[in-house]
């Protein structure tokens, strides 16, 4: 609960939360949510979240779905409000090859719901926004942001509940 409150607090007007490796932002979040400003504690926590041990892929069918999408010629991208650790993290999770592009807010200098990050993903994929569907778990950041960029958007957990369902909705059959 304290983490959520700290995370949702305004972060300096127009300042981006995720600049470079996001260290300044994350240090603020850790200190605000735990009350601990010990540099070693922060560093251990920060380093832990750079590893695959801290993360879990949310859908057991994800790999087979992304293989089916690639085989069907569907281009995919990650669009994320995150820092520059995302690419190495995707590699550590062994899922970086599932995506044709990665648009990270720290690299694009725009965070969701800003349409710029969605437009950058479309540019990297070589598609027009009206040809793209964004699937995200936050109504404001993902759905409104993608739609403001001209993309269709589906809310994870409401419009779709699995990657397999995403594939089926766009007409791609997934086999194990």
Automatic annotation (TrEMBL):
Pfam families: Hydrolase
Protein name (Swiss-Prot/TrEMBL): Haloacid dehalogenase-like hydrolase (HAD) superfamily protein
UniProt source species: Zea mays (Maize)
């Amino acid at each position: 609960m304290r983490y959520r409150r700290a995370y949702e607090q305004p972060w300096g007007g127009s300042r981006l939360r995720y600049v470079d490796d996001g260290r300044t932002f994350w240090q603020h979040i850790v200190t605000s949510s735990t009350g601990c400003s010990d540099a070693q504690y922060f560093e251990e926590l920060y380093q832990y979240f750079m590893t695959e041990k801290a993360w879990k892929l949310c859908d057991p069918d994800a790999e087979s779905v992304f293989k089916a999408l690639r085989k069907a010629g569907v281009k995919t991208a990650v669009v994320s409000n995150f820092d520059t650790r995302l690419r190495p993290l995707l590699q550590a999770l062994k899922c970086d090859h599932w995506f044709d592009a990665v648009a990270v807010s720290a690299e694009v200098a725009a965070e969701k719901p800003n349409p710029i990050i969605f437009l950058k993903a479309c540019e990297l994929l070589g598609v027009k926004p009206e040809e793209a569907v964004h699937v995200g778990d936050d109504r404001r950041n993902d759905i409104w942001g993608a739609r403001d960029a001209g993309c269709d958007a589906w809310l994870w957990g409401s419009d779709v509940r699995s990657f397999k369902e995403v594939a089926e909705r766009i007409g791609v059959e997934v086999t194990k």
